[in-house]
Amino acid sequence: MTILSFLGGPVVKALIEAYQAKLKAGNTDSKIAADLAAGEIAAQTTEINAIAKYRIAEIGHWYEPDKLMGYFVAIYFGKLLIFDKVLGLGTTDPLAGFASVTANLVVSFYFAKRGFENVARIIKR
After folding, report:
1. pLDDT, tens only, 26-50
2. Helix (H, G, I), strand (E, B) or coil at 103
3. Which residues contact 37 (CB under 8 A, 6 or more apart)?
4. pTM to 2 decimal places
5. Contacts of 95 (CB under 8 A, 6+ apart)
6. Which residues of 93-123 are buried (b: 16+ CB within 10 A; e: fewer)?
7. What is the C-alpha to C-alpha distance for residues 15 and 54, in angstroms, rounded to an integer?
């Protein structure tokens, strides 16, 4: 929504002003300057949209499966550490079997992923 409010505000206003300047331009130099200004604003708008799409593609959405598993494991360990250990408000059964392995893999993935990406980036050079 921030992008939409940004595009709806100053960018649209600048486009309107550039178009009005083009209509009011009396000589050739003013018309060329107005055309260049309108083209620059259109290019900036296109660039802003492309950057937003790139960020969404790079970061993804909060509801992707790998992120959901990370949230679940974080909630479990948060409950385990804060409520059970720090505040002493209960007990949580330890994870066993598949759940234990999965939780360990999820935690390992989140902590090791960036390191592997950096090593791969260095090797790729």
Report:
1. 667 777 777 788 888 888 888 988 9
2. helix
3. 18, 21
4. 0.47
5. 76, 103
6. eebeeeeeeebeebeeeeeeeeeeeeeeeee
7. 24
